[in-house]
Amino acid sequence: MMFKHAAPVAIVLAAVAIAASAVPGRAEKAVAIPAPARDAPPTPGMQTAVLAGGCFWGMEAVFEGVKGVRSVVSGYAGGTRDTATYAAVSTERTRHAEAIRITYDPRVVSYGTLLRVYFSVAHDPTQVDGQYPDSGPSYRSAIFPQTPAQRMVAQTYIAQLSNTRAFAKPIATKIEAGGFFPAEAEHQDFARRNPNHPYITRWDKPKVAAFKAAFPALVG
Known about the structure:
Blueprint: H1 3-6, H2 9-22, E1 47-53, H3 56-63, E2 69-77, H4 86-89, E3 97-104, H5 111-122, E4 130-131, E5 134-135, E6 141-144, H6 148-163, E7 174-175, E8 180-182, H7 190-193, H8 198-214
Parallel strand pairs: 6-7
Antiparallel strand pairs: 1-3, 1-6, 2-3, 2-8, 4-5
Helix pairs in contact: 3-5, 3-8, 5-8
GO molecular function: peptide-methionine (S)-S-oxide reductase activity
Signal peptide: 1-22
Active site: 55
């Protein structure tokens, strides 16, 4: 469903109400999962991580609150630059995923720790081509490693979580390649600028609250 960004408020409220009763989700609580058995070593300077897990509004809101994260940018990953626009991505024919680019200090928060938050509370990694009320490949669960070390950590962590059956369903998260292209200005810091938007209050505020409850030591 693409109602969240463009529809009038009355339509959004109705759609969110229907989705809340009809679509299963776990936005209200984190899933208890172990830390990665293998992580990337800390390095000097800032690093970037690119993660996709449904609507970028909520992903951005969660990771903006992680200690050691310097900035989070909403955007599109996995497709080409010329179709990296909301209008084009909404057609579900561009191969992009709504994603975020995280700039973080690896001496404060590791890549593996970011992935733990990603899998535990930022989204549901068992949903295929969708998250909660939103459906389509642009809402898929995908990791876009920026370095060989990140790829290694992501691969081994997915295997670890799968082998320990951390989730009741198979993990759908894919490891992909492709560039990241920032989204339009209206989508940046959306949750912070629109705290009472019905989509934010139903789906994203609960995730932020769940993150703070499950990972108090990571709250920045």
